[in-house]
Amino acid sequence: MKLIDLRAVGAAYRFVLDNPTPVLAAAGLYGVVFSVQSLLTAYAHAYAPGAAPGMILFMIAAFGAFVVGWASLGRQALGLPQKGFHGLTLGGDEGRLAWALFLVLLLLTIILMTAGVAMAFMIAGLAFTDMDPGAPQPEGYVNLFELMGPGALAVSVVLVTVFVLFSLWLITRLALTAPATLNERAVRVLSIWPLSRARSIEITLTSLASLAPGVLTLAVFNAICLALLGAGPVIAQSAAGEAGQLTVSPVLMLLISALYGAGKIALLAAPLIAALSALYHKYAAEGEIQAD
Question: What is the pTM (predicted TM-score) of this model?
Fold first, then answer.
């Protein structure tokens, strides 16, 4: 079992430099939409009239821009013919990719929420088992972990660890959905399951390695924004003030959010897409994808 694919990591790091035009086009599109979404989010949390519906609308628009950008960069990484303005277009690839990503999110939500609720009930049961029946009833917020003895606390830590590992495993098993959908020109969700069998660690470590420089860069950028402005684009509501006002200039909020949004595509999405596409090519050469 291979722990990490260094060739895929190298392809991820080279992708942005080798394909600056499509990366900048995708980053620019998403950055503009994301900046408006962030501004409206800040206004919504400042209780500005009409901001909440606009926030929801632009959240949907941001997802659409993300899908369009992913399709463009995915075609580039897979060596497929490009379409539209520097790869940006609306067509069958984008529709199939949007549907595939929606199905993945739906599956993850259903499965992980079910597992999470089950884990929460087990942890609550452990806490209640260790409670003293004669003790006064606690009021307000209760930290269940403070009610546990050493044994119950150890079991709870194991449960949380298992849940996290299971979540990572499930995400990696579905991680090849996007490249498979673009390459096969058909929605591929469950059919890519065999390709990732016994490869979860390799997919996880390769993906994390491709994301690490971008995560660090964007974290530093957000920290600088917080230090200088008192608000950052990671949590747009940090700019929310009172009575519908913001604590920073709206123009400045748009600017830093646009830069952050563009950075998410150029420094996170693009390398990840390249890494997953490289892994998909390697795995697909070793096995056949069946139709869903």
Answer: 0.85
